[in-house]
Amino acid sequence: MRLLTHNMLASNVKGTTSGFPLRIEVLQKEEREAEFHAEFLVNTLGKIEWDAFVGAARSIGADDGLPNTKPADVSGDEAFLRAFHHALLEVHVQEGYLVCPDSGRRFPITKGIPNMLLNEDEV
User: Fold this and answer.
1) Which of 8, 48, 63, 119 has its CA 20 to 30 A from that of 56?
2) Nearest to residue 58, comparing CAs of 46, 74, 50, 107?
């Protein structure tokens, strides 16, 4: 699971009022090189919930070069875009859990795929 995916997921357990951002518990992670596209990164930056992204990157040790606040204009900042690219697309959580901040429910990540399916009593 990439941090791009993590930034779009939330817990929908019954009774949950704040299921975002999910906390990441890493059992296994790996880095895989991905092709760099500055235009994609600039466009994606506007859609990312920055505080959740930086918090997740810190929790998995992928926050090198990422500022605490979202930069206003990054189109010419190659160093920032490279750091953003690495954390967003090249670090993969292979095994672990996503944990709901409200209910504490743990969703497994197996072979890089988060399982967000709810049990019948959680719907």
Assistant:
1) 119
2) 50
